[in-house]
C-alpha cells in the first residue's frame, strides 16, 4: 500500500477530527470536550506536541499518530511519548500502524531523542502484536487517579 505521512495542518481539521473521534470511540471515551484543546496544541508551533496523518495514494486519511516530549529524570534526557495511534478499521493489518510508528521513531532519531514510549490497553491484542514486534512490554503498570480537586 502506498502511503504518505505528513504533519496535520489547518486544512486537515475534518480528517484529523474524524480520526481523533475514531480513536476516542475505540477506547469508548467521550473526547468532544478535548477536541478544541488538542487542536490548539497541534497548531501551536511552541507546543511540543505533534500530529501526523497517513494517507493512501488517493488522499484518504487512514491513520493518525500524536506524540509529544516527555522528560525522563533518571536519564536527564527527553524521549518521545507516542500518546495516540489510530488506524481506520479497513486499514488495519495493512502496515499503516507500523508506518506511523516508524515515522515517529525517525522523528525521534532525527531530533536526538533516545527512545519512543507508549501505552496501550492490556486487552488491545491486535495492537500489542504489532508493538511486541518492536520491543517487549516494559512491565510497568500505569496508575491514574483524580487530583482530588
TrEMBL record:
InterPro entries: Acyl_CoA_acyltransferase, GNAT_dom, YpeA/RimI_acetyltransf. The keyword Transit peptide does not apply. Coiled coil: none annotated. The keyword Transferase applies. PROSITE patterns: GNAT. Transmembrane segments: none annotated. Keywords: Acyltransferase, Transferase. One of its GO terms (molecular function) is acyltransferase activity, transferring groups other than amino-acyl groups. Residues 3-149 form the N-acetyltransferase domain. PANTHER family: ACETYLTRANSFERASE (PTHR43420), N-ACETYLTRANSFERASE DOMAIN-CONTAINING PROTEIN (PTHR43420:SF47). This is GNAT family N-acetyltransferase. It comes from Paenirhodobacter populi.
